[in-house]
Amino acid sequence: MTTPSRLPEPYGQGSGANLADILERVLDKGVVIAGDIRINLLDIELLTIKLRLIVASVDKAKEMGIDWWESDPALSSRARRDELARENAELRERLARLEALEPRRAQEEAP
């Protein structure tokens, strides 16, 4: 007579596909977790912390209008190049203004 085993299946067999399905569904649909923490003392608000967490795929985030990482120089090489080009243009403009002022100073100092 055999008795059925009551041990759970190892993680590698049945739960891997389930976890992948759940992850795919979460990334496809997106999940928003929001919460606020407030610290009051005698009805005086001392601290408020607002927490917002969005878990979604990049495509879903772009669909929702969330694309802040594309303009962050720390995360996007295109944003880094754009920032360097803007900074370069500003420095060239400042240099041109300084060079335009230099001949005037030379004329004012001449006897």
UniProtKB/TrEMBL annotation:
<keyword id="KW-0175">Coiled coil</keyword>
<feature type="coiled-coil region">
    <location>
        <begin position="74"/>
        <end position="101"/>
    </location>
</feature>
<keyword id="KW-0304">Gas vesicle</keyword>
<protein>
    <recommendedName>
        <fullName>Gas vesicle structural protein</fullName>
    </recommendedName>
</protein>
<dbReference type="Pfam" id="PF00741">
    <property type="entry name" value="Gas_vesicle"/>
</dbReference>
<dbReference type="InterPro" id="IPR018493">
    <property type="entry name" value="GvpA-like_CS"/>
</dbReference>
<comment type="similarity">
    <text>Belongs to the gas vesicle GvpA family.</text>
</comment>
<dbReference type="InterPro" id="IPR000638">
    <property type="entry name" value="Gas-vesicle_GvpA-like"/>
</dbReference>
<dbReference type="InterPro" id="IPR050530">
    <property type="entry name" value="GvpA"/>
</dbReference>
